[in-house]
Amino acid sequence: MNDLDLKGKNALVTGSSRGLGRQYAMDLARAGANVIIHDETAMKSAEFNEAASGFQVAEEAAALGVKSMFIAADLADPEQVEQLIKQSIERLGSIDILINNAGGDIGSKTPRPEPNDSLDISVEDIRSVVERNMLSTMYTCKFVGQHMRERRFGKIVNVGSIAGHIPVTSGVIYAAAKLGISHYTRSLAQQMRPYDVNVNCISPAPTYTARFSATRTVNNEEGLSRLQRIAHPEDMSKIVMFLCGPQADYLTGETIVCWK
């Protein structure tokens, strides 16, 4: 990743004021890319004390010598998504890299659905999880994809989850939505192939973020190998940076599943 040179490239990372998205955005900036920091609101980054605001995260990225700014948008609303893309292009001139990171197992009125299974989960929570994961990814890909198709250039990295590749009894709708992103990635990649736009997906393993640490209890990992332990954000980011860089120029339609 230290050898990755993305100078002159413009990137949008959704959900990047916190968690894995913040790691991706900062690593893009370290590689020289200008980056749009995004979240639903400017204060989402303070929910688990990761940053004072999305604006502060943008300032941190700009301090690395690139252009960076924060834009808020609710990705469940396609009109707000369209405006996010329009504003990003107006401010940077183009979007060369899109990382669809925003998402999560998010209930309509609670941090996570409860119950969170296949049958007893509320209809409102089903809608919330699908909107926050699969539909938001489709909306963003639609508007950025049109821009990249016209320019005949771009890299799209969608973010799924390991949960979409194993049977689960909790977070079933979330897992199904994330697996849907993987198939959508494969199909979008085929459509974008004639326009030299790469579309790939990463399905991260469980990863230490502020939200993860605050909402889960991790068993003692002493004695486990590196590949058996909970991942750290930089572990997932190295894979994402590979997909954004020239080493992946001939890779499209793939999902990299990070098994644990």
Explain the overall architecture:
The protein has helices spanning 19-30, 54-62, 78-92, 123-151, 172-192, 210-215, 233-244; strands at residues 10-13, 34-39, 68-72, 97-100, 154-159, 197-203, 255-257. By secondary structure, it is of the alpha/beta class. Strands 3-2-1-4-5-6-7 form a seven-stranded parallel β-sheet, sandwiched between helices. Helix 1 (19-30) packs parallel to helix 2 (54-62).
Number of DSSP strand runs: 7
Distance between the termini: 22 Å
Mean pLDDT: 95
The helix-and-strand class reads alpha/beta
Poorly predicted regions are: none
Largest sheet: 7 strands, parallel
Order of helices and strands: EHEHEHEHEHEHHE
Rg calculated over all Cα atoms: 17 Å
Helix content: 40-55%
What would the principal axes of the Cα set say about the shape? globular
**Spatial arrangement of strands, main beta sheet:** 3-2-1-4-5-6-7
Beta-strand content estimate: 5-15%
**How many DSSP helices?**
7
Pfam family, one: adh_short
InterPro entries: NAD(P)-bd_dom_sf, Sc_DH/Rdtase_CS, SDR_fam
Protein name: SDR family oxidoreductase
Family: Belongs to the short-chain dehydrogenases/reductases (SDR) family.
The gist of it:
The protein has about 260 residues and is α/β, with parallel strands linked by helices. It is about 40% helix and about 15% strand.
Topology, element by element:
Blueprint: E1 10-13, H1 19-30, E2 34-39, H2 54-62, E3 68-72, H3 78-92, E4 97-100, H4 123-151, E5 154-159, H5 172-192, E6 197-203, H6 210-215, H7 233-244, E7 255-257
Parallel strand pairs: 1-2, 1-4, 2-3, 4-5, 5-6, 6-7
